[in-house]
Write a structure and sequence with these properties.
Strand content: 5-15%
Number of domains: 2
CATH architecture of the largest domain: Up-down Bundle
Shape: elongated
Oligomer: single chain
Number of strands: 5
Structural class: alpha+beta
CATH class of the largest domain: Mainly Alpha
Order of helices and strands: HEEEEEHHHHHHHHH
CATH topology of the largest domain: Multidrug efflux transporter AcrB transmembrane fold
Radius of gyration: 28 Å
Largest sheet: 5 strands, antiparallel
Strand order of the largest sheet: 3-2-1-4-5
Keywords: Membrane, Transmembrane, Transmembrane helix
Number of helices: 10
Length: 419
């Protein structure tokens, strides 16, 4: 350990309580009073942060304005209308009307609770295949109505179960847990979460469906989400502004790297779900851009965690040892960030691996080598997604720490901040 980390630190005002004069740099988190509301920053720090943040804020706002969809984006993708019902009878039988042999289908009667045939019963068939769900009497289901006679079973296809109630209960439990533990801060976090979903549902999805470049849409949305969510959750302070800066720089790096390596690896972004989407839209969509947009949006949450933690660590170090210069403050902050980023990278890799688990299982059944499996489109895009996101996550630590140290050393530390 360097001698500057253990030697007594001179007080900036020669103040009271001599026993408080020695404050080691590594113990900033041990003083509970340092975790209160952030102190007002000086005018030079305010100007510096405004100068650094203005380009990102302007780019995000202009991007949303230019890319915001103005036309109807639902008509092109209009397919089957979703209606609700409850299965009242179910029995195995032949699939066709004229067939008399075999039990290849499940013949069900559904009491319609939604749509043009609400209150009526319709009779339809469900193929008994390994890839289709197993429906039974009493199941509440979602049917796709393709038009035609609303009382004819041929106009409907059972597509899924209704899951509204258990999902609503789970969401309620989540909200209660956040509020009980976080209280006012938890309420702000829930409002910020609602803002994120609003940006995704009202801007990102309609803009992509309207034919806009998915990567540009994702970057603009990420800017709006980061400014809104971080300031709403953590308040207007120098710490939050530094976290926003670090997050935006890291997201920009992720966007550039994902574009370069997806092009170098000739990734098309076309998988089964994307191919179905393209077919239902009736017009072209940038599938590679859709892949890149997913990479950018998927990295938002983890970057938020890393950048906020790094800025808090730098401010705690500054409060514990005001004598630290920019270089030493940066070095101490990066040492803290190394442990954090190693665990965060593992979290990111495991999250993507878990999402790609069915693809990995399917690929492992193929009688080919590991190298061939890893180069398949579905696997390769997950590798690019994971590694690019991890590089951006690693880069967030030195970038955020450098900006935080640059800002923190220009903020005056008052005598009572050390007591």
């Amino acid at each position: 350990m360097d001698d500057w980390e253990t030697r007594p630190i001179p007080r900036v005002t020669g103040g009271r309580h001599a026993k408080d004069d020695a404050l080691p740099t590594g113990h900033g988190h041990g003083h509970g009073h340092h975790h209160g509301p952030a102190r007002p920053v000086s005018q030079p720090v305010r100007r510096l942060l405004a100068l650094l943040l203005a380009p990102f804020a302007l780019a995000a706002v202009v991007g949303v304005v230019l890319l915001f969809p103005t036309g109807d984006t639902t008509s092109a993708a209009a397919g089957q209308q979703a209606v609700l019902g409850t299965i009242t009878t179910a029995a195995a039988g032949p699939c066709g009307v004229g067939e008399t042999e075999g039990d290849q289908c499940l013949i069900v009667t559904v009491e319609m609770t939604d749509g043009a045939a609400a209150g009526s019963d319709i009779r339809t068939t469900v193929p008994l295949e390994p890839s289709t769900p197993r429906f039974a009497v009493g199941d509440e289901v979602v049917l796709g109505y393709s038009g035609g006679d609303p009382l004819s079973g041929g106009s409907y296809q059972i597509v899924d179960f209704q899951r509204g109630m258990p999902l609503a209960v789970l969401a309620g439990l989540f909200a209660v847990a956040v509020l009980v533990l976080g209280r006012w801060q938890g309420l702000k976090a829930l409002v910020a979460l609602g803002l994120s979903f609003a940006v995704l549902l009202l801007f990102v999805l309609p803009a992509i469906l309207g034919g806009e470049n998915p990567l540009l849409v994702a970057i603009a949305a990420a800017g709006v989400i980061m400014f809104g969510v971080l300031y709403l959750t953590h308040g207007f302070s120098a710490r939050t502004s530094t976290a926003v800066l670090g997050t935006m720089v890291s997201l920009g790096l992720i966007g550039v790297l994902s574009a370069l390596f997806s092009a170098a690896a000739r990734l098309t972004g076309l998988d089964d779900q994307t191919a179905t989407l393209v077919g239902s839209l009736g017009h072209g969509i940038d599938t590679r851009g859709l892949l890149l947009a997913g990479i950018v949006i998927g990295a938002l949450g983890v970057l938020d965690d890393v950048t906020v933690t790094q800025t808090s660590a730098v401010w705690e170090l500054r409060a514990a040892n005001p004598a630290l210069g920019w270089r030493r403050l940066y070095a101490a902050g990066v040492r803290i960030g190394r442990d954090h980023v190693s665990s965060a990278v593992n979290t990111l890799v495991m999250a993507y691996a878990g999402a790609a688990l069915p693809v990995l299982l399917y690929s492992s059944l193929s009688d080919v080598g590991l190298g061939t499996i890893l180069q398949q489109q579905s696997i390769a895009q997950e590798i690019v997604r994971t590694l690019v996101g991890s590089i951006g996550l690693v880069a967030a630590v030195p970038v955020t720490t450098a900006v935080a140290a640059l800002v923190a050393v220009r903020e005056p530390v008052l005598d009572d901040a050390l007591e």
